[in-house]
Design brief:
This protein is about 45% helix and about 0% strand. By secondary structure, the chain is mainly α. Among the domains are: about 30-75, no CATH class; about 80-120, no CATH class. The chain is elongated and about 55 Å long. It starts with a helix and ends with a helix.
Length: about 120
């Protein structure tokens, strides 16, 4: 798609815009329902390759992506709820029994790296 804006500012990539629609366009790249992913990776593919991307309430990739795209307060479904998310950002979840339980549950999903990140904050 040609864009006067892209031409005017000399973008080297395709422009990316978000629009609301009732259905995803045919051929759009989209996460599988319930599958983890980063919305930024979809934006990067759209910008670099000129593809069309789509998200919906079941395919937003991650909690932050769901919130950022306006689908809901997805942090309510974060492991440990909103409190677990706040601890995840601030100081980790390893200091509480509930946090440790949730961390081990995440590890049981087969993602030890995510479990470690959930338990101990790098900040």
């Amino acid at each position: 798609m040609n864009s006067k804006l892209v031409d005017a500012i000399g973008l080297k990539t395709h422009a990316v815009a978000l629009t609301w629609a009732d259905a995803a366009p045919q051929g759009a790249i989209q996460f599988k329902p319930g599958r983890w992913g980063c919305v930024v990776s979809v934006f990067a593919t759209v910008a670099a390759k000129g593809r069309v991307g789509a998200f919906d309430r079941k395919t937003y990739g991650c909690w932050g992506g769901g919130v950022g795209l306006g689908f809901c307060n997805c942090y309510e479904s974060f492991p440990g709820g909103i409190e677990g998310f706040c601890h995840f950002l601030a100081d980790g979840n390893d200091h509480s029994e509930e946090g440790q339980r949730v961390g081990e549950e995440i590890a049981g999903w087969g993602d030890r790296h995510l479990a470690d990140d959930f338990l101990v904050s790098d900040t």
